[in-house]
Write a structure and sequence with these properties.
This protein is an alpha/beta fold and 141 residues long. Helix content is 43%, strand content 16%.
Length: 141
């Protein structure tokens, strides 16, 4: 059966539903982690970050990961920076406190420091956007 992409049926993101069952949410985050690992998102972003770090000759860099989910990419990039000796401050935000608890657990297990903030409105507590070296946003609409 052929599938047409001409017409899309937009549905709300279940992980953003404040009433989602916590176990269902954690299962969805595990699925998202598998996608992030398989797609090698952090690996794809890292060469650019490393190149810019070299060009700036050790100047500290900052990254904000918006809609971080379980923090897979933010944590992976923080680990790569730590491994390569690059000063990269990583902050991440999401509207889900459950997702951020998973992300904090992952950062702790990975031995890296990532500052996690709840809700996009928390951006005001992040570095001013004009001072960021990198901004990663992922949104499906």
């Amino acid at each position: 059966m052929a599938t047409s992409l001409r017409h899309r049926l937009l549905e709300g993101e279940l992980m953003d539903d404040p009433d989602i069952d916590i176990q269902a949410h954690r299962a969805a985050l595990r699925g998202l982690r598998r996608i992030n690992v398989a797609s090698r998102t952090a690996a794809a972003l890292w060469p650019t970050i490393r190149r810019i770090a070299r060009e700036r000759r050790g100047e500290p860099l900052s990254l904000l990961d918006v809609a971080t989910g379980g923090g897979d990419v933010a944590v992976a990039l923080a680990r790569r920076a730590q491994r390569d000796g690059i000063a990269l401050r990583v902050e991440a935000c999401d509207i889900s406190s459950t997702a951020l608890r998973v992300a904090e657990e992952q950062a702790r297990r990975g031995g890296v420091e990532v500052r996690f903030l709840v809700r996009i409105s928390s951006l005001s507590r992040c570095q001013p956007l004009t001072t960021l070296s990198f901004l990663r946003c992922f949104s499906i609409t």
